[in-house]
Design brief:
The chain is an alpha+beta fold. The chain contains six helices and 35 strands.
């Protein structure tokens, strides 16, 4: 059967495809003009309702409205993303059909050429045959001359033969035997780094366990090893408040503590600062503004009201302190406040809410997780910096979209692993080299906020709209089907990190529900406790009690068992709190919306 394709049919198909493409394009434009702000929770309606809640935090009607609107805004945001993706695919299909059928129609209607009478004289082929060889010769001479000039002005620094190369490598190795290296990356990140100084030795492991060196404490677990932690205080009367001090610039980073010093960051669009407080009386020992780096915030980045410019929590290795900001600036200071180095990993423009992942350390390395942009852009990465110089020791690219979860370093069978979560993977890297050890597909279609934790041979990773997954840490390769011990779907948080006791696994949802699971077996929740409060601060374990800092500033101290959640005490910070506390013997250090507090006995 022969089918004859006629030009009018093809032309009509092309016209229909063009009209279809215009309609789809128009719908996309109309949707773009009426859609929400780029950041859903920055919509005017939600901000007004949020102000009402702050004025009446105990009003259940307003709480229900906030939760309902929050859910509605998030659903609308994802609907818009799906609409845009589908529309772009349909538009692309229409354009392809239009161009293909239009070209086909034009080919069928093509008229035979009518060559003109050749003019007297040589034609183009004759001219090309005459001048072509000379033109090629000129190009070859120009290329050779350029190569010679480049070699003369920038001679190679490589040895002439393999023997000389081996000798040079041996010499380089002997000079830098104490400096960690990796084949993952030898390049420098944009910025300035200093030559490696004679850095102090790392303190013993016990010093880390007694301090609070990074987000959620020495093991990134939210578990304190300290005694005499206060369970009652009153900000209005000053009872139980050792000191409080206003923080010069805003931020939602949490405090870290090393011996007698407390460190914190603050920032605005124009300024980025690091603060060192005296742990005893709260006085600012030093306050340093980061030097300007070209491109770190040019053009200015967009950040959410909930994260701002100083969301990442600092870290220390006991020698120096390290700070990061939403612009992508990373800097190191000694304990006297001298800036040692400052690099920029930015600008981090492709992050919906602004960068918020905190820093951590492993021996002399500073571990940084930078997930931003779309998965197909391959802009995300985890990297390790030399703490003394800021040089990249290893770097691993990640095909993942933006996330706000922080990396954690765990020790298992005498091997240190960096655990980093992103959509859809939980991935473990060798802390010394960056080599990928294992991965599990557990967090699909999620904007990852909570930081994972490690307890008794398992990593616990979770996010709202995904699942809580307990992953055995001794696998290799893709362990999705072999090492996920159990999963659960109730009480999933979008910001607060999990907390593990000896037998229980606790989740604190942003809408105020504390959910308890059997840590070893999972299954259905053992119990749920509703505090009728919004939470962003991750729960902390002190002895047998759990401290919960609510967003309004209210604090609950509870004792969880397999049967119930026993409420032990309540307190109030007196101002909004979205950060996680740091603990020392007899003291709690916590950041409110305006002040840094030291809670304890004077």
């Amino acid at each position: 059967m022969n089918i004859t394709v006629r030009s009018p049919s093809l032309l009509m198909t092309s016209v229909v495809a063009a009209v279809y493409s215009l309609i789809v394009c128009g719908l996309l434009v109309v949707d773009a003009t009426r859609r929400l702000t780029k950041i859903p929770l920055d919509s005017p309606e939600f901000l007004v309702l949020k102000d009402e809640f702050l004025k009446e935090p105990g009003n259940p009607e307003i709480q229900d409205k906030v939760r309902a609107l929050d859910f509605e805004l998030r659903q609308e945001y994802f609907r818009e993303q799906r609409f845009t993706k589908s529309g772009v695919l349909l538009l692309l299909a229409g354009v392809i059909i239009m161009l293909a059928t239009g070209k086909w129609s034009a080919t069928i209607d093509r008229k035979l050429p009518r060559p003109a009478v050749k003019e007297i004289g040589p034609d183009s082929d004759e001219r090309l045959r005459r001048h072509g060889p000379w033109a090629v010769a000129v190009v070859v001479v120009a290329l050779l001359g350029t190569i010679w000039a480049m070699n003369a002005t920038h001679p190679s620094q490589l040895p002439d033969d393999l023997a000389a190369l081996a000798a040079l490598k041996a010499e380089s190795t002997s000079e830098a035997s104490s400096e960690p290296t990796s084949e993952s990356s030898s390049e420098l990140v944009a910025g300035s780094v200093a030559a490696k100084p004679a850095a102090p030795e790392l303190p013993p492991a016990e010093a880390f366990l007694q301090s609070w060196p990074h987000f959620r404490g020495p093991q990134s677990s939210g578990i304190a090893r300290h005694a005499d932690i206060p369970a009652a205080w009153d900000v209005a009367s000053g009872e139980g408040i050792v000191w409080k001090i206003a923080v010069p610039l805003p931020g939602v980073s949490s405090p870290i503590v090393w011996q007698d010093r407390v460190f914190l960051t603050g920032a605005t669009e124009e300024r980025r600062e690091v603060y060192c407080f005296d742990a005893a009386d709260g006085k600012i020992l030093w306050q340093k503004e980061l030097s300007e780096k070209p491109g770190s915030n040019d053009p200015p980045i967009e950040v959410s009201h909930d994260t701002g410019y100083a969301a990442p929590t600092m870290a220390t290795d006991g020698r120096f302190v390290y700070a990061m900001f939403a612009t992508g600036d990373v800097a190191a200071f000694d304990f006297a406040g001298h800036e040692l180095w400052h690099i920029t990993l930015g600008p981090l423009h492709d992050n919906t809410y602004g960068h918020a992942a905190s820093l951590t350390t492993y021996k002399e390395l500073v571990i940084v997780q930078v997930d931003h942009g779309k998965a197909d852009a391959e802009a995300s990465k985890v990297l390790a910096l030399d703490g003394a110089t800021g040089r990249v020791v290893w770097q691993v690219a990640r095909k993942m979209p933006s996330s706000w979860s922080s990396p954690v370093v765990v020790e298992h069978d005498e091997q240190a692993q960096v655990i980093a979560c992103g959509d859809p993977w939980v991935i473990a890297y060798a802390a010394a080299t960056g080599t990928e050890l294992w991965r599990a597909n557990c967090l699909p279609r999620s904007e990852i906020g909570p930081t994972p934790i490690y307890s008794d041979g398992m990593v616990f990773a979770v996010n709202e709209y995904a699942k809580l997954s307990a992953i055995r840490i001794d696998g290799s390769g893709d362990v999705t089907d072999t090492h996920v011990a159990w999963q659960a779907e109730d009480g999933l948080p979008d910001a607060c990190s999990p907390l593990a006791t000896d037998k229980l696994l606790l989740l604190l949802a942003s809408f105020g529900t504390l959910t308890c699971y059997d840590k070893a077996e999972g299954g259905d929740p053992l119990w749920e406790e509703d505090f009728e409060e919004d939470f962003t601060s991750s729960p902390s374990l002190v002895g047998d009690n759990v401290y919960l800092f609510g967003k309004s500033g209210k604090v609950w101290i509870v004792h969880p068992t397999a049967d119930e959640c026993q409420r032990i005490a309540e307190a109030d910070l007196g101002e909004e709190c979205v950060t996680s506390p740091a603990f020392q013997d007899g003291r709690i250090y916590v950041r409110g919306s305006e002040h840094l507090f030291c809670i304890g006995s004077k």
